[in-house]
Amino acid sequence: MIQDLIKAQLAYAIQQLFGIEIKPEAVVIEKTAANFEGDFTYVVFPLLKISKKNPEQTAQVIGDFLLQHFPELETFQVVKGFLNLSIKSDYWLRFLQSVGSNQNYGMAEPNSKEPVLVEYSSPNTNKPLHLGHIRNNLLGFAVAEILKANGHKVFTCNLVNDRGIHICKSMYAWMQFGNGETPESSGLKGDHLVGKYYVIFDKNYKQEIKDLIEKGLLEEDAAKHAPSILAAQDLLVKWEAGDEQTLAVWKMMNGWVYKGFEHTYQKLGVQFDQFYYESNTYLLGKEIVQEGLSKGVFFTKENGSVWIDLNEEGLDQKLVLRADGTSVYITQDLGTAELKFQDFNCNRSIYVVGNEQEYHFKVLQQIALKLGKTYAAGIYHLSYGMVELPHGKMKSREGTVVDADDLIAEMEHTAKETTQALGKMEGESEEALIQLYHTIGMGALKYYLLKVDPRKKMLFNPEESIDFQGNTGPFIQYTHARIKSILRMVGTHDGNFQLSNIVLSKVEKELMVKLYQYPLVIAEAGKDMSPGVLCNYIYELAKIFSLFYHDHTIMKEENADQKGFRIAACKLTAHVIKSGFALLGIQVPEKM
Description:
Rossmann fold; 5-stranded parallel β-sheet; Isoleucyl-tRNA Synthetase, Domain 1; 4-stranded antiparallel β-sheet; Gyrase A, domain 2
C-alpha cells in the first residue's frame, strides 16, 4: 500500500536528516484535507525539538529530501506545520490496472483470522419485530459480513427469548379473551396476533391496578397483586414445572410467532447459522449456577435465592436464580454462552444488543471470568442506541411501535411512487418493477439506519431516507445504475489503456485515491465494528463519481487510452459500490 511506502520514506528521511531512528509503523499520516492540494499529510510539529527548525522549515527540508529519494512522489506543499504530499498519476493508473479485474478487491483472505460468533436479532416471542429490531438485525448482519471481509471465519446465531413472564402475559390474555382465535381465523400474521394479546394484557392489567387503587391499595401493592400478573406468574411456574396444558398453549403460540418472524427475516435479507432458544439454554444456565455455588462464586440468601457479589468489580450484587427456583435473564445467558462455545469453539463472541443492557453484559463477562471460562475475555457487547420516532420512544405493550412488516411495505410503496414520478422505468415488466421497488425501499431503509454510528441513538425519518439526492441509499443505487448504463453503451470495450498517454484531471485523481482506500475502509469498519464507516465512504465515492461524470465525457472521448481509463474507472467504481453495499446487505439495481 502507498501508505506503507510513504511511512517508510518518511522514517528514512527523519533518520537521514535528524539522526533519529523511528519505526515506519510509528509514523502517522492522514488524508489531506479537501481544501488543500495533496493526497496525504504528515504533521511535523512533534519533530521540532530534534529538527531545531520552525514548522515550515522542518516540513520544507523533509519535502525536499522525499522529492529526491521517493520516486512515487510528484510534488509537495507546505502549509505551516503540515507537509502535504501528492503522489504521481502513474501510481494511481498502475493501481487501476492491477485491481481492475479483481472481483475480490478490498477483501482479506477468507478465514485467515480468528473465528468470531455474532449473536443478533434476539426477539421476544410475545410481539412482532419492530423498527428497533430492524436496526438490530441490519447491524448484526452488516457487522458479520464486514468481519468476513476482514478475513474472519464468522458464525451467526439468534437467541430467541421464547420463555419468561413476557410470553406468559400474551398466553394468559389469549386464554382469557382469545376465544380460540388463530392466525388463520383472524387473517393476521402469527407474530402480530400474539403481539395483539400482549397489548390486551397490558390494558387489562392497568385497569386492574386502577380498580385496586380505588379500593384503597397503594399503587406498588396493586401492581403486585393484580389478578392478571398473578395469573401470568402462575403460568410461568407451571411452565417450568412442565405442566402439559401450559406447554401446549406455549408451543402453539410460539409456532405462530416463528412463522411470522421467518417471513420478516426473508424480507430483511438476514439469516443465521444457528438458532438458540432460552427454553433450552436456561436449564444449562441452572447447571452453571450450581457449578458456581460449588466453587464459591455464588452465594445463597436466606430466602433461597442465589446471588453473586460484584462490588469489588465496580458493580453490585446480582441475582442469578430466584428463590422459587425460576431463572432470570443472566441464568439463561450463562447457559447460552456455554452452549455457543461448545458448538462453535469461538473465544470471541459479539452480542448485538441495545445500550440499555450494558450493565447486564458487564455482569455476564465478570461471572464468566470468575467461573474461569476460556471465552470470558472475548465477550463483547456491541451496544447500539435506540431508534426513536418524531413522537418519542416506542413501547410494545402500549402498541406504539413501528411494526417491521408495515414499515417494509411503506418503504416499498414510497419507492414505487418516487420511481414512477421520475418516469424512467417505462416498459419494464411488472415483476421487474416489484423487485426494483423492494430493492430501492430496502436500500433506503438499510442505509439510513446503518449510516449512523451504532452507539448513537437516532431519529428515523422514512421520507428523508428515500430521497434520490443526498446521503441516501437510493442516491448511491442510482449512481450504480447510471454507471451500468454507461457500460452498456460502451459495449465490448475492455477498458484497457497505456499509462504514457493519459493525463489525470484533479477529479479523476480524486476518484482513483478514493477507490484505493476501499480495503482500508473495510479494515477500519471491521476494527470499529461500525457499518457507518463503510456507508459514508461509499457515499463519498458516489459523490466523486458524479463530479467525474459531470466534468468528463466517456463515450465521445477521442483519446483511446483516456477513454479506456475512464471505462476502467467506471467498472471499478461500480464494483466497489456493489461490493460495499453487499456487505451492508443492500442490493444495487442494474437499471433505475
